Amino acid sequence: MMDTTTENFTRDVVTESWRQPVLVDFWAEWCGPCRWLAPVLEQAVRAAGGKVKLVKLNIDHYPEIPGEMGINSVPTVIVFVDGEPADGFSGARSGTEVRAFIARIIRDAEPPEVVPFRRGPATASLPSATAEVTASSAPIEAMLPQPESSGSAAPDNRSATSDSLSMRPLLALVILTAIVLVTAVAVKLLN
């Protein structure tokens, strides 16, 4: 817990909030609920084990920042994350409410867990399957289904051969798209 001033607010709150969430307690000496809330905040921040920081700003001594932020009642607690106000509350709160508020702030501020890629049974064949598809020396045309040579006419009097030929560009596009997607997924998984 530390007190800050208008001159040090950027360093103590905004810059520090890029490292960890910073709770700013806007308070005044004459404010009864402020005196009640202060030890509740301090205890909850200590219980958080250094995952949040508490900074106090006396609005009577340093009215500029609360004025710019539109704070018109005390106590008001604003949490800063990544240099910006992210959440807050006004008025006295119970210890349970403050601890729940801090727990939510900590949870929301934590980066998502990054799980390292490990080749396991489900992914062991992925790179080799991708390599087989991309390393194939056969032209796309050879991978497409070949028209039947029966010569039977389709119901609309077009031949089966002409129907298959008109689908070849579309099928080639679908196959190329699939190869690109499989390759991209494999590269992403391997990185």
Task: Give a structural overview.
- Helix content is 47%, strand content 14%.
- It is of the alpha/beta class and 191 residues long.
- It has two domains: 2-109, Glutaredoxin (3-Layer(aba) Sandwich); 126-190.
- Strands 1-3-2-4-5 form a five-stranded mixed sheet, with helices on both faces.
- Helix 2 (32-47) crosses helix 4 and helix 5 (126-135) crosses helix 7 (160-190).
- The longest helix has 31 residues, at 160-190.
- The protein is elongated and about 80 Å long.
- The two termini are 42 Å apart.
CATH topology grouping of the largest domain = Glutaredoxin
The computed structural class is alpha/beta
CATH class bucket of the largest domain: Alpha Beta
Strand order of the largest sheet: 1-3-2-4-5
What's the number of extended β-strand segments? 5
CA-based shape:
elongated
Order of helical and strand elements: EHEHEHEEHHHH
> On the 0-100 scale, what is the average pLDDT?
81
Q: Termini distance?
A: 42 Å
Q: How would you classify the quaternary structure?
A: single chain
Q: How many domains comprise the coordinates?
A: 2
Low-confidence stretches: 154-164
Radius of gyration: 32 Å
What share of the residues lie within helices? Answer: 40-55%
Q: Which CATH-level-2 architecture of the largest domain?
A: 3-Layer(aba) Sandwich
Largest sheet: 5 strands, mixed
Q: What name goes with the CATH superfamily of the largest domain?
A: Glutaredoxin
Number of helices: 7
